[in-house]
Amino acid sequence: MNNDVPKEPLWRHIVGDVLRRERLAQERTLKDVADAARISMPYLSELERGRKEASSEVLAAAAHALGLGLADLLSLAQADLSRLARTGRAQSAGRRAVAPVSDGSAVSETGVRRARVAGASRPSTRQARLGLAA
């Protein structure tokens, strides 16, 4: 068996990363999103960390709590999976990469710019999804 072949990322890691990234882009707490989705806060945390496989109903509830449709969530996850495959970084799935930018903010793998300073304006869900947050 060849150990040099990169491992395929697990779907639960990809989806968990998307959920966490979207929640953080909206500057919302686990409790806030879990309450809106009507799931427990520990369960949402486990989903975000890729430790639990969620049913389609739970994924839809979490997506809706974030202002996304299930199709949006799956599309974002598919984009992440494709990007990982293109860059050969499939083995690092489940880790969030954030690159610093010269203006003191940071850009996540989705291109969402997050300010490091308190009081920065919060991007809308649509802006965050499309990577348009400034």
Major sheet, described briefly? 3 strands, antiparallel
- Number of helical regions: 6
Coarse morphology: globular
What fraction strand? 5-15%
Unreliable residue stretches? 90-122
Distance between the termini: 46 Å
Strand order of the largest sheet: 1-2-3
Total beta-strand segments: 3
Average pLDDT for all residues: 75
Assembly annotation:
single chain
Q: Which sequence of SSEs, written as H and E, runs from N to C?
A: HHHHHEEEH
The SS-based structural class is: mainly alpha
Rg result = 15 Å
Helix content: 40-55%
Tell me about this structure:
- The chain has six helices and three strands.
- It has helices at residues 11-25, 30-37, 41-48, 56-65, 70-87, 125-130; strands at 98-100, 105-108, 113-115.
- Helix 1 (11-25) crosses helix 5 and helix 2 crosses helix 3 (41-48).
- The longest helix has 18 residues, at 70-87.
- The radius of gyration is 15 Å and the shape is globular.
- 28% of the residues are buried.
Q: What is the compact description of this entry?
A:
With 134 residues, the protein is mainly alpha-helical.
Keywords:
globular, about 130 residues, mainly alpha, about 50% helix
What is this structure's SSE topology?
Layout: H1 11-25, H2 30-37, H3 41-48, H4 56-65, H5 70-87, E1 98-100, E2 105-108, E3 113-115, H6 125-130
Antiparallel strand pairs: 1-2, 2-3
